[in-house]
Design goal:
Arc Repressor Mutant, subunit A; 11 helices; 204 residues; 2 domains; mainly alpha; 59% helix
Length: 204
């Protein structure tokens, strides 16, 4: 059985995992795919004493941040970061909620500027409108059925898209549902996730 999504608060003292999540958020990772190297550098900017070389504390030690990312995804912050690709990450909807809930702690421990940018509300609304006006959504809403091909059109991908692409589309829709406070859309996304888990290869 997989581990539960992280819900406990961040540490009141600096640690390599919390600062990585905070750095991803500050770079706009609530709505953007962020290169891991940019996250590494931002993490170093926020906590240089923890993430610098032993003999050259003015230089970032990428091995420390890479190790932090591994532990985040495997044990310490499960469910908060979406692996878009080998070199890109984005916060999940759960990750954004975790950040927003504990922002006073994180901003106090690490400081940092405001996020680079978040997607405009109309970006989320455009995504919501495409989904809720689709045949896939209508079928789910009326008879509780989901069709893979109709769903692919609603989520702007292909029925043959790999699991990683589908996960990314679901995270975008889940984020839109959160921002726009659309509970029915959130329910549809959860139904889609259950459907895809048994109908798309490579889903774990």
């Amino acid at each position: 059985m997989g581990q539960s999504i992280r819900t406990s608060p961040p540490s009141g003292e600096p640690n390599n995992q919390d600062v990585f999540i905070w750095a991803l958020y500050l770079l706009g990772g609530a709505d953007l795919d962020i290169d891991v190297e940019a996250i590494y550098l931002k993490s170093f900017d926020l906590a240089p004493a923890r993430l610098g070389w032993r003999t050259r504390p003015d230089l970032p030690d990428y091995k420390k941040t890479a190790k932090a990312l591994q532990s985040i995804e495997a044990t310490t912050h499960v469910g908060l970061v979406h692996r878009v690709g080998p070199y890109t990450r984005r916060l999940t909807a759960e990750g954004v909620r975790w950040i927003e809930k504990f922002m006073p702690i994180l901003s106090s421990v690490y400081s940092g500027d405001a996020p680079v940018r978040a997607a405009a509300t109309n970006d989320h609304e455009r995504r919501r409108q495409r989904i809720v006006s689709s045949p896939a959504y209508a079928a789910w809403r009326t008879v509780g059925e989901i069709d893979l091909f109709d769903s692919a059109d609603a989520f702007e991908c292909s029925a043959a898209s790999p699991a990683s692409v589908w996960r990314g589309r679901l995270e975008e829709a889940r984020r839109a549902a959160d921002v726009l406070r659309d509970g029915e859309l959130a329910q549809f996304v959860e139904s889609m996730q259950r459907f895809l888990a048994t109908n798309v290869g490579g889903w774990k």
